[in-house]
User: Which sequence fits this backbone?
């Protein structure tokens, strides 16, 4: 630590100003040392939620009218400001989450990379998907009018910080970065498990906003629990919602968003069991390697990733026995790790107990009590039929726990895949001997998920144009969009077409001669 | 008419087979002659709804696996089959809707053009939005996996025929064409106002399907009213919904779709008042031309277009008086026209009566009784304040009726624009004298609508890549998508990313060397 710990004020941010909350008092908790962390924070009250949303709506017009380069500069300044928080940020985040400093250093890099990736996307400019269809006054039976279309921001976005990514999916995470890039003001509901980290990041964003001279309503951050979040989603000024978290919370927000007098899109990424299928050839040839790899992936970050593989399926037999031997021996060597919050730890313990008592499951490695609030990994064995009989076994258990499903045959394993509900990812391991079956497997895996991983594990989500992080329900509420990668910006925009508007009056992206030099479609074909 | 009228069977289509419905009996009605039309039709019963959806789900795998060229051939065959129905189709459609033959001939051409446009889109292939990010095994701190993403179909789509477009937005309309193009089987709920037209079109589609050798479950068509539609939307096998119609019906379907255990997207296009704003310079210079143009646009198709302009706003004064003079004189010369159905006619009459009795409205041209089920146009005058006080005045009144809003000033007119809820279109008329105000007006119009029309009227929706037909709620339930133009296909697909899958095992669109020769992004840049 190269600095003194920063002085936290425990405040909310409304229109880029730090203000005392008027709601309940709460504090952060150190899951490693099992004690509360100062200072006291205060939740926002209903009036403050409305105020933040109204300020966001007021800033929407001025913000969207700014040249995209100004928004890019702001995002880059946010990244710089976050880096300038130094090790104090990592120390506070580690204290609030129990996540190791090294992991948080990587997450900070990713967070800043994301902000800069969206800045680069804005500077390049083609993301607005400009399409021009030129007028044809001589067309019969009627003249064809000229039409030009691009993407415009939808309005203020409510962003929910995620417990498991205090940096990359929280106050300045992918949802915020993509919404700000699109031209949407943001009201963040900070996750109550890391309010100090949230305040530090908010400080960097406020400074960047002030330095960039942007309208202050572009950024607000409110503290609070489910009540504050639900009120925010129902606030009329809010135009869209970005959420990463549990199925129950995500579905509740989705339902509120859909039931509004003016329904709004709610992008809730709710995790999944991310099944891993091991085909017979791969099982024969690489059982130990796959078993060890699975153990490493399911315990990464204490099993608290949306992409944690929670189910491994293979045909029963000697190969699967070897895989399990390698997996359990690796798991046994895996250290106990603190979970993010006492509530998450309680749910993990309760889930493990339920599985250990489940008549259709055999405990291969029941997690013992590590003491000190830390969690040990757990592994259970099931039959494919058991998963069909009890859909709850196909639900995510957050933490370092997984099920191994022994199938009677490869055909039964394929049926199991088809029977699973929507997943963020589905992984398939094969060897050359399996090749004839692989096309069918890739299709089956694609039909239930947003990302198919070949001969690997799902943890580790690249931030790039071709990433798809979001799968069929219940993995996410809208499988047509991704919450990771530059395509995430498409959640916060809608197309507008201009008919017969002279070129000089249009945004530069749509003008004759393509002054922005971006990729455009003209009469359905790439320009030039 | 160059043929005998076709023999209608009054049947439903389940998995490309004509079957007797097991529900209620109904028949079509000729709104011009005001008498029922033979034969009797029978609605589908709940079992038949489930059966059609199950067949669609069963056909989904085989259908999506077909090469895109096979789907393109099928769409082209559908267009040919519809044309081969000849004038008998137009005669039946005219009898069922009261729409003139010439209009229906144009609508048929548009319907077939749409089918062929999607066939061309499939043959060209770039619509799958292929993005490749190549592996970088040497990247630090961890290797970068290769990722390749494209769009896959979501599953069986429920399509609702629209009363006002018996061809272009019904059984083989834009929703069906785009869903079939995407690789989604379709279950159409035919609109009960034109069941015979629907049966004829279905016949063409079944023949095309049989000739193309496609899985039969790809196409079903059910007769029924709201109950059949609601049951269809709630059927688990249905993955998405396309609807064009009233706000009440659209919202009901949207709510059902969102409340399912597995929520599904519901694209409901629900119309709007499509405001026309006349700036002071344009009013001075072109009052008569604009007044006449507005009258022509609001009475086109008896005012039964989603894009009918239902509100014209301008600053009060001599110019507006001239505009109204030209508008009313043109409206007076406008012939009485039959409306699509007796129910629509009843609602039109009731709406006109409500407006004529409204204390804040002045009747400029109260529609007299034309007799014989025909409707005459109506025009009323209001103040901007009246629209603010009574939001109901901003609701669509289906039929040839409109409000003229006299504003105190251009500033009040701009406030009026900002206060309107979501619109499909917003039109702005200006002259050179108005130019300094135009950028602000274009932005205001874009902020409430999906299409901004300059110096023109909103009726007439081009089918082209840059069309946006769909605006902020309540114009549609999802402003991020269009129901007209080739981009309509994006409603029925979702991205899937393949990680570390060898090129040879990927769909050709994602393979090394780009064998399909489509536009792709590689590492974020256009290929080559």
Assistant:
């Amino acid at each position: 630590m190269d600095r003194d710990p920063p002085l936290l004020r425990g405040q909310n941010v409304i229109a880029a100003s730090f203000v005392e909350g008027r709601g309940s008092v709460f504090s952060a908790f150190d899951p490693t040392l099992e004690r509360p962390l100062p200072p006291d924070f205060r939740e926002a009250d209903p009036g403050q939620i409305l105020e933040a949303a109204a300020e966001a709506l007021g800033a929407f017009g001025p913000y969207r009218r700014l040249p995209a380069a100004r928004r890019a500069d702001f995002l880059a300044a946010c990244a710089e400001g976050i880096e300038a928080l130094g090790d104090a940020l990592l120390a506070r985040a580690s204290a609030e989450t129990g996540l190791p400093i090294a992991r948080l250093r990587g997450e900070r890099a990713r967070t800043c990379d994301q902000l800069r990736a969206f800045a680069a996307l804005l500077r390049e400019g083609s993301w607005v998907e400009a399409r021009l269809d030129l007028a044809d006054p001589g067309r019969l039976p009627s003249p064809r009018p000229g039409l030009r279309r691009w993407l415009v921001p939808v309005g203020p976005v409510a962003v929910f910080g995620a417990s498991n990514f205090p940096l990359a999916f929280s106050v300045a995470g992918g949802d915020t970065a993509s919404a700000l890039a699109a031209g949407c003001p943001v009201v963040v509901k900070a996750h109550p498990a890391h309010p100090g980290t949230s305040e530090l990041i908010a400080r960097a964003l406020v400074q960047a906003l002030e330095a960039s001279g942007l309208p202050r309503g572009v950024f607000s951050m409110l503290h609070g629990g489910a009540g504050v979040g639900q009120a925010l989603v129902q606030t009329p000024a809010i135009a869209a919602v970005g959420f990463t978290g549990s199925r129950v919370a995500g579905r509740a927000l989705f339902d509120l968003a859909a039931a509004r007098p003016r329904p709004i899109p709610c992008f809730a990424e709710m995790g999944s069991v991310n099944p891993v299928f091991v085909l017979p050839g791969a099982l024969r040839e690489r059982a130990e390697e796959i078993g060890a790899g699975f153990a490493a992936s399911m315990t990464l970050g204490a099993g608290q990733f949306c992409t944690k593989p929670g189910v491994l399926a293979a045909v029963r037999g000697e190969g699967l026995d070897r895989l399990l031997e390698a997996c359990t021996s690796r798991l046994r060597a895996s250290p106990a790790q603190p979970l993010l919050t006492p509530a998450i730890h309680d749910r993990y313990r309760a889930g493990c107990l339920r599985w250990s008592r489940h008549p259709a499951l055999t405990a291969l490695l029941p997690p013992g009590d590590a003491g000190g609030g830390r969690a040990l990994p757990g592994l259970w064995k099931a039959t494919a039929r058991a998963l069909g009989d009890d859909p709850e076994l196909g639900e995510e258990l957050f933490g370092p726990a997984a099920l191994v499903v022994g199938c009677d045959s490869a055909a039964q394993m394929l049926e199991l895949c088809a029977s699973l509900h929507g997943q963020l990812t589905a992984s398939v391991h094969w060897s050359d001997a399996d090749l004839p079956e692989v096309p069918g497997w890739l299709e089956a895996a694609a039909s239930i998920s947003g990302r198919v991983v070949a001969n690997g594990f799902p943890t580790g989500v690249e931030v790039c144009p071709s990433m798809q992080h979001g799968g069929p329900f219940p993995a996410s509420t809208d499988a047509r969009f991704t919450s990771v990668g530059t395509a995430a910006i498409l959640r916060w925009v809608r197309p507008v077409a201009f008919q017969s508007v002279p070129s000089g009056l249009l945004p530069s992206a749509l003008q004759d001669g393509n002054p922005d030099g971006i990729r455009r479609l003209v009469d359905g074909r790439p320009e030039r």
Notes: Chain B is about 40% helix and 20% strand. The longest helix of chain B spans residues 101-124.
